[in-house]
Amino acid sequence: MTRAFDKVPNSWHEQIINLLAERVVIVDENGIILYINEGYCEFIGTTMEEALGRHVQDVIENSRMHIVAQTGLKELASVQQINGSEMIANRFPIVEAEQIVGAVGNVMFRNPEEWRMYKSKIQSLVDELNYYQAKVQRDLQSKYSFQDLIGDSPNFLAAKTLAQRVSRSDSSVLLIGESGTGKELFAHAIHHDSNRTAASFVAINCSSIPEHLLESELFGYEDGAFTGAKKGGKKGQFELASGGTLFLDEIGDMPLTMQSKLLRVLQEKEVVRVGGHKSIPVDVRIIAATHRNLERMVEKGDFRQDLYYRLNVIKIDIPSLRTRKEDIPAIAKRLLKKLESRFFRNGIELSSEVTERLMQHSWPGNIRELENVLERSINVLDGKYILLMHLPLYLRDRETEGRNAGILHNEQNVSLSSISSAEPIKILPLKETLVQAEKQAIERALVVTKGNKLEAAKLLEIGKTSFYDKCKLYDIN
Ligand SMILES: Nc1ncnc2c1ncn2[C@@H]1O[C@H](COP(=O)(O)OP(=O)(O)OP(=O)(O)O)[C@@H](O)[C@H]1O
Fold it and tell me: Is there a contact between 196 and 246 (Cβ–Cβ < 8 Å)?
């Protein structure tokens, strides 16, 4: 059988080795040097004549070639001290007919200068890494303060004042409010004003992480804890937040088994990583949030009562937007400023009829819905003024809005006087009204979630199959 290397003339072999690697040494199974190239000899101050046939330990300082020739285990990027400098060495066993017959090794950097030259080449990669490390660090800071919480209505101010007052304490805070009311913003602001502000603010959404990953996400895992686990293990959010604040969003969606584990950590103030045994102390302030009625969940056995009491030390109710409509113009102004910088626009204003219409709407998706409505309007806007025509259909159609407000939000008092007396009140058959209400609710949910159907189904608290069926029925894409 012809072997590929046979075609390469013998006289080339040494040249090839010298060209591909500057410093090469080859030993037999006893560690006797069979070959050492000139580059290596020059580096360690010897000659080929002196080195060949001697044991590698007698020629090369701190060599491990004889060990590799015995164990058969390669050693990559191993640090070896030669002539007072740290070198990077690679060592490979040579195997013939399943027998270890020797080893080949090379040294990569002759001196620190060489290493620096190499380093300068990878400096851009190192810079990039540093940039992302700083970014992660920034992401672990609170991004909002109380100044970002816009609103002067009495119910909103009461919530904001309470949050400000408790921010410096270490007690747990439970933020209750409908979706999009600003719970996460409150959590940021509380951390920002606390004594923990120099440490991390770590946010985790308990509903968006699959149940089987939640435990390792929160408490971390040890090396080899499960298939696919990162080598060396991983810190959990509790450890990352140590000294700072951990924001547990959508706590009402946490599975019962996890609730017990969370309670244990809150009581013991220490975590044990998945697959580990060591207890790691953690000093974390908890802010939890939910749009669910936790008391009712406790009654139904869906939420642990002891955990509820532990989280509910300070409860802050964040009012829905429809209960503080007077705040809408100021909030819309702030949101427009935010959107302007995102869309590289400026000077955008709401026309007075749009402001009026926004004040009439019942905002089931709260400030997030308002933000999405404004974003949509900017997208279809050529000039500077947002007019009624730039609003989504469901907001333009004021008659339907007035008619359905009571159906969609029967907790809200809809006064008949809010429907213009110039427009006759049209009464449709109940079935048709319900169909329209359902269609509108789906459309609104899609606006609030920016077209995300799974999120919309969740908001409406219906299954995804039923949601898709209804979209098909109403021809909603
Ligand atoms: N008081 C406020 N002033 C200005 N903007 C606000 C205010 N409250 C919330 N927002 C904005 O509204 C959006 C939704 O807020 P946030 O995510 O904090 O709500 P949430 O209650 O946590 O929602 P969810 O329950 O769906 O997670 C964000 O873009 C936020 O910046």
Answer: no
